[in-house]
Amino acid sequence: SMKVKVISRNPDDYLRETKHDIHKLVRNHNLPTDSFRAQTEYTRALNSTKLERVFAKPFLASLDGHTEGVSSIAKHPLRDSVVLSASRDGQVRIWDLPTKHCLATVQSHDGPLNGMSVDSVEGMSYVTVGQDCQLKTWRLPHPIGGKKMNVPLNQITLDGVAHAVSHLASSTDFVTCGEDVSVWKASRDTPVRTYKLGVNTIHAIKGNPIEEAVIVGATMDRSIWILDTRAQAPLKKVTMKLRPNAISWNPMVINEFVVANDDYNLYTFDLRHLSHPKNVHVGHTNAVMDVDFAPTGKEFVSGSYDRTVRIFPNDNGHSREVYHTKRMQSVLSVMFSMDNKLVLSGSDEMNIRVWKARAAEKMGPMNPRERAALEYAEKLRETYKEHPQIKRIARHRHVPKSVYSAAKEHRIIRQSEKRKEANRRAHAAEGEIPHIPERKNHMVTNEEL
């Protein structure tokens, strides 16, 4: 018979390792020098991190009513509680978030709705474009006792299909894109200016929320371009390896925007240096379909075909939150609320889901002692976030099996490619195979127009 020897470690060894880690944190991060106080605070930070994950319940509500996939979500710039959603059958619904009540339902187009945008000055109307070559302006009902408007204020027949629409900053003017880029005034039936940008279809466009004249867009040939409406042609153009799907400007930084791409990544660009992205945000395992910045400009939310919603810090390449449910299918549209408290996602199975921006945040009134305790716990987690145990617990997220398997496969592919490149470089002449940074590896060309 074979004897099995069980080796058990002394509990003092674990205590000794924990003390060693605490003393290391004290030296590197200027923490309290009192050993007993440091150990007490570390224990409280560890317990607080565990409780934060226990009470992380991000899902709040589901807004039902659409009969097709929710392809677009728009926020009201002046009313935090009003949200607009559009489905693939051309139906637009206007929601009141606190009551989860649908204020109005409008059949805006005889087919798929390609885009919509709310007036950012008065907030009394919104514009929609559809696959039926129609551009329509609608009046928004008031949340309390407003009349439902099923007839558009203005209707224009376009020469071609418009794929997106966006209002300009501090103006009632807006831009549409399709075969070309057109700048419109609310009081005119013909565009003020039209820009021809080649033979490729322009499928995404976004006006800068700070500078009225600056517009960024994307075309089907995988290129991103910058346009100033005071000029006669685009200023810059850059081509990526795969197609950009959506664009969102940082509302606090005039020259920064993020792009959702077909290669499962998101890219933060600086308007002044368009030749390569400022940051690459990874984590999704399928094409990223939509992205939207938080009103603070410190983070953004993205939705993907991998059936997850992720929240990324603006300066970090990895997401801090991953939201998913069993029934949620491909996420087609996402939105950050104007109060920075909620995240909305529209998916292919006709639902709009409302999530917390902070998964463990308590929603509702708090007494002063409770608020002080939560602020103290948050400060402890921030202070000891680099400790291995706390960092491991805070970063861990459960994801669906399909996402986990795909992420593992992508990781193996990346490691294999790096290993092959290192082998080729080791057996080639010096300087023959250059090192290309990851931020420049996804770009093809850069043009000054």
UniProtKB/TrEMBL annotation:
Keywords: Nucleus, Repeat, Ribonucleoprotein, WD repeat
GO biological process terms, semicolon-separated: maturation of SSU-rRNA from tricistronic rRNA transcript (SSU-rRNA, 5.8S rRNA, LSU-rRNA)
Cellular localization per UniProt: Nucleus, Nucleolus
Protein name: DDB1- and CUL4-associated factor 13
Keyword Cell inner membrane among record annotations: no
Pfam family, one: WD40
Family of this protein: Belongs to the WD repeat DCAF13/WDSOF1 family.
Residues of the Sof1-like protein domain: 357-442
The WD repeat ranges on this chain: 63-105, 281-312, 324-365
Listed transmembrane segments: none
